[in-house]
Amino acid sequence: MKTTKTDPAARTPNRARHAATLATALATTLAASLYANPLAAQPAASPKTGAATATRAAPTGQAQAGSPAQAQAASATQGVVRSTGTPIGSEPADASTLVERLQALYPSTRFGAIHPTAWPGVFEVAMGANLAYVDATGRYFLFGHLYDMRQQRDLTAERKDAMARIDFGSLPLADALTEVRGKGTRTLAIFSDPDCPYCRRLEAELRGLDDITIHTFLMPLASLHPAARGKAVSVWCSTDRLATWQALMLRDALPPQADCPHPVDRNVALGEQLGINGTPTLIAGDGRVLAGAASRDQIEAWLSRPGAGAPSAAAGSGAR
After folding, report:
1. What is the pTM of this model?
2. Are the beta carbons of 50 and 28 closer than 8 angstroms?
3. Which of 5, 46, 213, 219 is 20 to 30 A from 52 (CA-CA)?
4. 188 contact partners, CB below 8 Å, separation of at least 6
5. Are 202 and 293 in contact (CB under 8 A)?
6. CA 288 to CA 188: how far, in whole Å?
7. Across-strand partners of 127?
8. Residue-level pLDDT, tens digit, the chain, 320 residues
């Protein structure tokens, strides 16, 4: 159907349509986590044109007798009484009090930071690496993406990008292979596995970058590539670490077996601490994260847009 320039839906970002498919599955998972019994919260039918799914607590009658978790869930629909006798949800909430309310209503769920949104009466709440939206009573949840249609901004994606940032200054760069090209003005850290095919693809793309300092943390994923740790250690213990690494990744030239004090195990632990569960993973100097085997053009565009969302990497890239 032909649309006009005044039709807001016609200007919806393409990713909104893709988000709609993922939102339903995510909503089911996160809503189920609010209660011990996954059936205690069921997502409502997703609107055909929306990118979010609304979820509310189950009616009291659906709680199973004898289950403390279900009894707690049932109280969510009726209000929880404070020691003063005031039902929770009957007074106005702000971000500081809402987190206490949510924890009281859903004790089995871990809630993170809560922020007010531009949508009056709706708060953003972090649940692990995911975001949800909740009203002041804590009864109604919205899972999905929140868009500013006038400014054509995906507010949820922007917040997730900010949440995923890593403090570049805290990285132990002495534990990485470092290469300076040109003046090395731009900085980039990469977590890479020597046996990861996508890491090798990325290494070839990186050859086209200039005026950049690249810090490569050797992070072998032993569960996927049993021989990768030995190769990583041998690279680190070679006489020319950078040349040995590039020969391995670009020409499949195996390094001579060697052993010495090395940071490989520390790098693996660091990656896990930072939430990096796949290789390759790139970190820009401002802390933005890009996972997967991106192309040279994608990386250039990503590095040139501080604060912007990361571009989509190659399909299928990740923990390989």
Report:
1. 0.59
2. no
3. 5
4. 212, 213, 214, 215, 282, 283, 284, 285, 303
5. yes
6. 10
7. 130
8. 444 444 444 444 444 455 555 555 555 555 555 544 333 333 444 433 333 334 444 443 344 444 444 444 444 444 443 333 334 444 446 777 898 999 999 999 989 889 999 999 999 999 887 899 999 999 999 999 999 999 999 999 888 888 888 999 999 999 999 999 999 999 999 999 999 999 999 999 999 999 999 999 999 999 899 999 999 999 999 999 999 999 999 999 999 999 999 999 999 999 999 989 899 999 999 999 999 999 999 999 999 875 443 343 443 344 44
Q: Are 41 and 127 in contact (CB under 8 A)?
A: no
- State whether the Cα torsion 92-96-100-102 is positive or negative: positive
- Rounded to whole angstroms, how far apart are CA atoms 85 and 99? 19
Return the structure tokens found at 302. Answer: 């990503």
